[in-house]
UniProtKB/TrEMBL annotation:
<keyword id="KW-0807">Transducer</keyword>
<keyword id="KW-0716">Sensory transduction</keyword>
<comment type="function">
    <text>Odorant receptor.</text>
</comment>
<feature type="transmembrane region" description="Helical">
    <location>
        <begin position="274"/>
        <end position="296"/>
    </location>
</feature>
<keyword id="KW-0297">G-protein coupled receptor</keyword>
<keyword id="KW-1133">Transmembrane helix</keyword>
<feature type="transmembrane region" description="Helical">
    <location>
        <begin position="104"/>
        <end position="125"/>
    </location>
</feature>
<feature type="transmembrane region" description="Helical">
    <location>
        <begin position="202"/>
        <end position="228"/>
    </location>
</feature>
<keyword id="KW-0472">Membrane</keyword>
<feature type="transmembrane region" description="Helical">
    <location>
        <begin position="240"/>
        <end position="262"/>
    </location>
</feature>
<dbReference type="InterPro" id="IPR000725">
    <property type="entry name" value="Olfact_rcpt"/>
</dbReference>
<feature type="transmembrane region" description="Helical">
    <location>
        <begin position="27"/>
        <end position="50"/>
    </location>
</feature>
<keyword id="KW-0675">Receptor</keyword>
<feature type="transmembrane region" description="Helical">
    <location>
        <begin position="62"/>
        <end position="84"/>
    </location>
</feature>
<dbReference type="InterPro" id="IPR050402">
    <property type="entry name" value="OR51/52/56-like"/>
</dbReference>
<dbReference type="GO" id="GO:0005886">
    <property type="term" value="C:plasma membrane"/>
</dbReference>
<dbReference type="GO" id="GO:0004984">
    <property type="term" value="F:olfactory receptor activity"/>
</dbReference>
Length: 319
């Protein structure tokens, strides 16, 4: 009897049920999710290939963009294959260890994405406010060091999360009302005091996404101050244009992220399917949209992309 209770309290598997209330529509929801995931894979892989093979793109902004693309690929690939398996084959069962791995990879890589946004904002700040020293400040070694610091921060701060969840008893249920394993989703089904764990998660979120966002705002305040002191309107518009892509990806990423974070902790009256749907948009849409934004708005990447496909078409024609 005691062995049974131990198994019941510390389950070896969890059951993901998908989007509550929309179970009958899972197969239809999976179609756009699958298309978006494939576009994210294609776009980010093309972006990485183009930047790697074109030495003229080995500049700080594009190197940070490569790091962001790798984090995006990790986040969506960690969640989407299992999500599609759930939607297509009703395969909601996931091992406890795999669930904790999902929690760590999704949260840590999301934290890294926030850090890369901040690094890109710093690049724009130096390029606009101190252009003569841009090359000497953001050398390749400096960019690599910043990337390592961001990865280390995301790993170190989120590394405790799986252990905080591992030691909890789950006597209420092993059913997770979500499409993937997420920290707060597991906290909600635990039958123990979780106040300290919730506080730690909240502090980490503030020290990463919150502080990053405030520093990004500060950098753009300084950028705007510099831009509005430029002598001509054309110079102001041209300078602001170099920030357009970065601002777009920040809005696309931070908007669903903040909504998901706030509704999970404070939005008790928000319908569960709304929250979970937004959480999936946060995982899927930014990885798809980021390479499109930079591909459309950045001439170097756009020209290299078109050149790559033109060469491919010629090779296919002669083959």
């Amino acid at each position: 009897m005691s062995a049974y209770n131990k198994t019941d309290i510390y389950p070896s598997t969890f059951i993901l049920i998908g989007i509550p209330g929309l179970e009958t529509a899972h197969i239809w929801i999976s179609i756009p999710f699958c298309v978006v995931y494939l576009l994210a894979l294609l776009g980010n892989c093309c972006l990485l290939f183009i930047i790697k093979t074109d030495s003229s793109l080995h500049e700080p902004m594009y190197l940070f963009l490569c790091m962001l693309a790798l984090a995006d690929l990790t986040v969506c690939t960690t969640a989407v294959p299992k999500l599609l398996s759930l939607f297509w084959f009703h395969d909601g069962e996931i091992r406890f260890e795999a669930c904790l791995t999902q929690v760590f990879l999704i949260h840590s890589c999301s934290t890294m994405e926030s850090g890369f946004f901040l690094a890109m904002a710093f690049d724009r700040y130096v390029a606009i406010c101190n252009p003569l020293r841009h090359a000497s400040i953001l050398t390749h070694s400096t960019v690599g060091g910043m990337g390592l610091v961001i990865v280390f921060r995301g790993t170190a701060l989120l590394f405790p999360h799986p252990f905080l969840l591992r030691w909890l008893p789950y006597c209420r249920t092993n059913i997770i009302s979500h499409t993937y394993c997420e920290f707060m989703a597991l906290i909600k089904i635990a039958c123990a005091e979780t106040r300290i764990r919730r506080a730690y998660s909240l502090i980490v979120a503030f020290l990463t996404g919150g502080v990053d966002f405030m520093l990004i705002i500060c950098s753009y305040v300084l950028i705007l101050y510099t831009v509005f002191h430029l002598p001509s309107k054309d110079a102001r518009l041209k300078t602001l244009g170099t920030c357009g892509s970065h601002v777009c990806v920040i809005l696309v990423s931070y908007t669903p992220a903040f909504f998901s974070f706030l509704t999970h902790r404070f939005g008790h009256h928000v319908a569960p399917h709304v929250h979970i749907f937004v959480a999936n948009i946060y995982l899927l849409v930014p990885p798809m949209v980021n390479p499109i934004i930079y591909g459309v708005r950045t001439k170097k990447i756009r020209d290299r992309f078109l050149q790559f496909f033109k060469v491919s078409e010629i090779n296919m024609f002669y083959a």
